[in-house]
């Protein structure tokens, strides 16, 4: 293998690993996929060092090492990208893809998201279902649905304007729980408390938390702790929003 | 009969959060029905364990999460997609939302008084411990198949 070829393949592999980390794959998957992709493309070995916001990768062929570093910027969770990268790795392993095909497909990865008019009703419906599951009556579920829909709109609007995720969560939690408190003001429902509790559940950082524990259990301690910290901060931010809303509504006498 | 009705209701309403959160994580559209199925079966199984066999909520959650872990690995092998893609969305209906909420409310109430009130402190500790244990059960349960069975080889 020529040095140029090794450089090129290493670039493809590190690009794949960078995308995986940026769009929220767990560290074990990142390590496994980039090693398999590198070996399928002809590298003798691939070693990774993953930290919370950067990535160092070394590839080895015929006793020659290439080491490269990439900065990771978190882009939010996008499972479609992770799924696409997994597929590229598997097709390369089966011998269907060479380095050029991999480069072409990597260049064509675009993080597509669901449009807002689909996302808002479905998340609001999820929160309504949470309310029903925890025992709320129909009126409480409806209040939850409306509050969560407005909250989700605020969250998406703030994300589009590139606000810090913590500020975003605090403001969203505030708006959502102010609206959900309507059940306390007027005698619409017998279970007003459940409506408030269920409507802010859309802010649960489910993926960061599961990824964090999964990373720590599988031995990627530093990334796991970083993700845990991020998830905790997100929770604390939403708690601040809820608290301000409750003091405004006079729920805490 | 009543139990069956309760389980059907449970399964139906827990499939919505699974799909809603799967969309939040941008899971491709063709996988959404599988997220819904895994979420519904998991939550239904937990309710069955809790109501019928009166298993404590932590253990029921752990077993349901492990069941979801096994199911999602079967899906993952069929579609060649990472198992967490289905798994995280499927466990969302079991997130201890109301426990976490009660913990926080009690915590804020604790700070509002001039001295520590035992009844409020009780609420904080009780709900907080439940929240932490259920969360731990969820994530470790979900990782169970890869910890027990797929120790040295990749899943797909």
What can you tell me about this protein's structure?
The complex is a heterodimer of chains A (253) and B (156). By secondary structure, chain A is mainly α. Chain A has two domains: 105 residues; 134 residues, no CATH class. Chain A has eleven helices and three strands; from the N terminus they run ααβββααααααααα. In chain A, strands 1-2-3 form a three-stranded antiparallel β-sheet, covered by helices on one side. The model of chain A has no long low-confidence stretch (mean pLDDT 91). Chain B is mainly α. The longest helix of chain B is centred in the C-terminal third of the chain and has 31 residues. Chain B contains six helices and no strands. At the A-B interface, helix 2, helix 3, helix 5, helix 9 and helix 10 of A face helix 1, helix 4, helix 5 and helix 6 of B.
How does the SSE layout of this entry go?
The complex is a heterodimer of chains A (253) and B (156).
Chain A: H1 3-22, H2 27-40, E1 45-50, E2 54-61, E3 64-71, H3 79-93, H4 99-107, H5 116-133, H6 138-160, H7 165-180, H8 182-185, H9 192-199, H10 206-217, H11 221-249
Helix pairs in contact in A: 1-2, 1-4, 2-3, 5-6, 5-9, 6-7, 6-9, 7-11, 10-11
Chain B: H1 2-24, H2 32-52, H3 57-79, H4 84-91, H5 97-112, H6 118-148
The gist of it:
Chain A has 253 residues and is mainly alpha-helical. Chain A is built from 11 helices and 3 strands.
Write out key terms for the chains shown.
heterodimer; A: 253 residues; mainly alpha; 2 domains; 3-stranded antiparallel β-sheet; 3 strands; 9% strand; B: 156 residues; 6 helices; 78% helix; 0% strand
Structural class of chain B: mainly alpha
Can you tell me the residue ranges of chain A where pLDDT is under 50 for at least 5 consecutive residues?
none
Low confidence ranges of chain B: none
Strands of chain B, total number = 0
**Largest beta-sheet details of chain B:** none
Give the CA-CA distance, first to last residue of chain B.
Answer: 41 Å
Largest interface: A-B, 55 and 48 residues
**Rg of chain B, please?**
18 Å
Total tally of structural domains of chain A: 2
